[in-house]
Every structure is written in structure tokens, then in C-alpha cells.
Amino acid sequence: MPFLTNFRENTNFRGDPAWRQFVRRWSFVSLALILVTSYFSYGFFEWGEHYIVTEYVGLKLGKTPASELIWEYPVQIRSWFQPAIYYAAAKGLISLGVQNPFVLAHAFRLISGIWAWIAITSLMLAAGVLFPDDQRRRPAVVLLALLWLIPYLAVRTTAEEASGDFLTIGLAILLLGSSAVRASAALSAPKLKDAAQSFLRIEPRSFPAWTMFWAGVCFGLAFEFRFQTAIATLGIMGWILCYSGERRLPRLGKLSVMCLGGMIPLLIGTGLDRWGYGRWTCVPWNLFQVDFVQGVHAKWGVSPPWRYVTEALFQPAAPITWLWVAAMLVTWVRYPRHILTWTTLPFFIFHSLVGHKELRYLFPIVLPAALAFILAYAPAPGEVARPAWLRAIWGRRNSRLAKLIYGLNLLFLAVNCVTNKQPNLEIQRFIHDRYPDGCTLYVVGSATQNPYHCERIGSMFFYRPPNLTICRVDGYDELRLKLTTGPQHFLILDDRLHASPEQSLAVPTAMLLYRSYPSWVENFNYLHWMERSKHYSLYAVDESQSAGAGMFATAPDSKDVPAIARREKDLTPTDGGVFR
């Protein structure tokens, strides 16, 4: 089969054992980083990652009421393809006795991480086609493994990330499953030969039918996860139509095969949407109507076309993002006929022209765009016609400044791998671990945020224990009134660092269980930054005991009773702010 033959030749594993070992080593490094990040990164990049995917799974698991889902559910503009995959995984784990929603969410991140790892590894292999020389293909492999945001994005359960993974896999299949066409056989058109030598930096390619089919399946999956990725797919198809090394009629026939492959996920996705929404509907058409006809998303804010560039320039990881923006511009200007330009530039232009902008909208092209570092800065063998400033950047790749940037990248990589948590999920996890069968939680004061609710979006149900009752009270005077008829065992959530006199008077038996910041952090409360940050203090109360006893009649975990019984002044924090 030409597809498999081309794949073996393009990976060149048998002919170049050193390259095989190099890719294998860095692929394992990438997998290790993804696995570590999937364990620690149980937060989310933005709220939609939870409400649009996880809560949809919660609906089918019986955790989330349909009436409590966000506004996008009743207008039916989100595909059920990704939630359906996570739902199947959750049902399998539940059948094995796994009920903890945080374990289920970890499984979701692992699934996303595996998709991303396959995409990263396939693009590492495709680097051998894009950059046949070791001077460029080896740095490309290392870059895909260690760029600071890639492991973090890999485990996100967003539609953007899943879509980008399959877009990348489809692009890699096209490159690895194709074969180079000799210049003498490439259309006998000198313009194509010149374009290949001057702009493509790779030889014209011939694409077997099976290559086009499987790439089409991946592009169809990318579309199902996020419909806007069709813009990048159209760019790739345009590149094949204009610059592949085959005659026009065979190109059109093979593009038809690609479309045929893409129809398979679309048909499956339509059936899954029927299952998810309970009736037949065309979700892509609904999205078009809501976004572009009714302009609903513009209500969330409209930004100028240059917003993405300016936002990238002011990211915490600057100057890495400055070099990245420059690399993208160089790639688009100097290589207008390169397949990476046709993949990323139309997608970027489209989202720049759309009024409402969020940085996550560009996540689908992060992996292909990362190779712009190599394409822009690393010269091809024998290349001399390069601007002086590009030669200067490449010439200083081993300088002290460059090593400082490499160190900065590794620092952000480590931070993103182990510290992505949200205070509200931290407290939700603590409550679920200690009270898996539920309890009554009083949220005190209007300034204290309910950890199970986002004011702009709605309530969170996926991580709630069964029989959890949440009541908001304006203050401790109102709480004292409720206790006359309320439960005797309950929790109090406050946003104060220490217990107030009002709290001590209303509930003298309250025992501190959890605080967002351990006590030693208060020694570094310069300029009172802790008062301005979001934090929680969680107390347990047992009104059945005397005011001085302060013990639970029935503790959630018997081995933790002595720790729970201690007064706040005697508690010492362990495990990042949890008092045991």
C-alpha cells in the first residue's frame, strides 16, 4: 500500500537509527510531562472548559440538571462528540466502582493528553519531511516536547485543544503518507519547481488516496470538536490544490476522497448530537445562526483585529511570545506558499476579523505554529538570502541571553505542569474528600464566593457530593437564626483569613478545617495582597456538643478526628493549606 510505504520511508527509522532514538526519547519526555500535568492540573484555563464539556457529561450521568446548563445548551450550538467520548469513559470507570468525580475528570484529562501526545509525536515525525536536515528537525522535536505551554494545553478538555490535536494529526498524515515528486515529473511547470525551491522548502508532494482519506477523517474530527477549525482545513486543501506535485484533475479527485473521509465523523457527530439534545438538529448551522447572523457572542465584547498580537506580546512568558509573534510574521511573509502558512494564516485572519476574541480560539493551531520558530530562525542548508537580523538571532542561539530565555521557558514549563489549580476547585475537592455523602454548607457574606457557582455563567454540579445543601447567609446574625431550625452538623465558608468576633459569638464550636493559604504565607503578606486575592476558610460546626468540646459526633474520617478537634490557633498547615 503506497500510504504505508511512504510512511516507512518518511519516518526513516530503519535508515537512520540515530533519528529513531532521538524522536523516541523526546516523545517519551513529552508523554511524561503530559502525565504529570494531567495529575496536577485539575483546574481549567477558562470556565467554558468545565461548563461546555464536563457539565454536559454530568447531564448524562445524572449529576447536572438540564435547566442548570449554560445558555449554549438550549440553543444547541455545541457538538456532543467530545462529551460523548468522556461519557463513555466515565461509564466504564463507574462500572468498575469509580465514583469520585475528580478521578473521572482526571480520566478526561488523560484522554485529552493521549490525543495531544499522538499529535505531538506525529508532528515530530513529520518534522523529518518539513526539515530533512538535522540542524532544523532536531530542534523542532525538542521544541514540541518542551515549549512551556504545550503540556499544559495537552491535558485541557477544551474543544479547541481536541480540535487542534486532530488537525495536527491530519497534517502529519498528509506529510508522512505522501511522497516527493521529482522536479522533472512535477507538472513540467517551471513555476512549481521555483516555488518549491524558493518558498516551500520541501519538494512537491504526491498524495495517495488512502493518505487523503485518513487525513480527511482527522480533519472531520477536528471540525466536530470545534467547527471553526474548518478554516485551517480549507487552507490545507487550498495548498494541495495549488502546490502539490500532481496534475489538477487527480488533485480534485483526491480532495474528493479527503471530503469523503471527513464525512464519516460528521455523520457520527450528527447522531451523537441527536443523543445529546434529544432531537435531530444541525449544530454547525445553529452556531452559524447564533454567532454570525444574530451576533450573540459580540455581546461578550468586541476587540480590534490586532488584539491577538498585542495580547501575545504582553503574556507573562515574554520575551518568548515576542520571538513567537516575530517567527509567525516571518513565516507568513517569507514563505507564503508553505503548507504551514496555508494552515495557520487563514485561521488567524478569520479569528482576527471576528469581533469577539479570546486567546483560546487560537489553540487549534498552536502545534503547527510552534514550528514557525524553526522555519523563521533556523536557516536551511546553503541558504544565504536571509535578512541580517534573522542571521543575528540564529547566531546568538547559544549566547547567555538565549540560555536565559531557555531557562525562562523551563521555569514556565515547570509552573504550568504542577500548579494549575483554582481556589474553588481546591475547596470542592476538599469537601468531596471529607464529606462524600454530602452535608450542609453555609456561605457567609455577599463577598464570599460560592465555590460551586460562577456569577457570569452558572452553577457547577459535576463535583458536588450527593445531598450537598448550599445556603447563603448575609452574616452571622442570620446564621444564628437559621441554626434554631437548621442542622446541628454543618460547614461554614468564609473569605476571611481569621475567625471574626461575630463568628466566635455565633458558632463558638467552629473548628478550622481548611484555608486556601497556609499560615506561614501571612509572613509575606506585603501590601496586603492576601486581602485582595480570592481565598477560603472552611469551618466545621457540631452544635450537639458543648461550646467547649468542639468535637464531631460523627466525623467523616475517624483518623482525622483529633486534627479536626484542635482550635484554630493550634493548627498547622500541611499539603498546601489543608489543615489535618
Give helix % range: 55-70%
Discrete helix count = 26
User: Which quaternary structure do these chains form?
Assistant: single chain
Specify the structural class. Answer: alpha+beta
What does this structure look like?
With 580 residues, the protein is of the alpha+beta class. The protein is 56% helix and 7% strand. The chain has helices spanning 2-11, 17-40, 48-60, 72-75, 81-95, 101-130, 134-146, 150-154, 159-176, 190-200, 209-225, 230-243, 248-277, 283-293, 307-313, 320-334, 339-353, 366-370, 372-377, 388-395, 400-418, 423-434, 476-482, 501-506, 529-532, 561-565, and strands spanning 179-180, 205-206, 440-444, 453-454, 458-459, 469-473, 489-494, 511-515, 537-542, 573-574, 578-579. A hairpin with a 3-residue loop joins strand 10 (573-574) and strand 11 (578-579).
